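Troubleshooting: if your tokenizer reports a length mismatch, compare your output against this known-good record of 156 residues.
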Amino acid sequence: MKNMEDVYFSKDALIQYLRVIIRMAVRALAILMTLVILWGVADVGWVLYKQLLATPKFMLTISDILATFGAFMAVLIAIEIFINISIYLRDDVIHVKIVMATALMAIARKIIILDYEKTSPDYVWATAGVVFAMSIGYFLVVKYGEEDNKPHSPKK
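Known-good structure output:
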């Protein structure tokens, strides 16, 4: 049985054709993610505009501010995902460090918008466990995984 790198860099016409289709699909995802980012920025602006014009004018409550932070973080996460897609198109390899950083940002967003009065302690502890595990994983990838983040070259 061939290993994954042999299959990936195969000279087989079908495999080459399928790789072209996948690259086109990834390009389509990049375009769609750009639209999502623009839509998200417009949505953040619109929500902030409506909140500032609501009575009392130009005042935001703590819950309004937290909701705005959550919306900003959602757009930043979309930008990180776009960066992941762009790097994949450039290097043809998934960078674990960037994917884990995006996941940590998504978890941070969840923590920022979490309503601790309505959330059970079990959920808070589980979230803390996920943050701890992802942080350790990210640390290990940054410290020991640098050689794994380089693009593979075809065997000769």
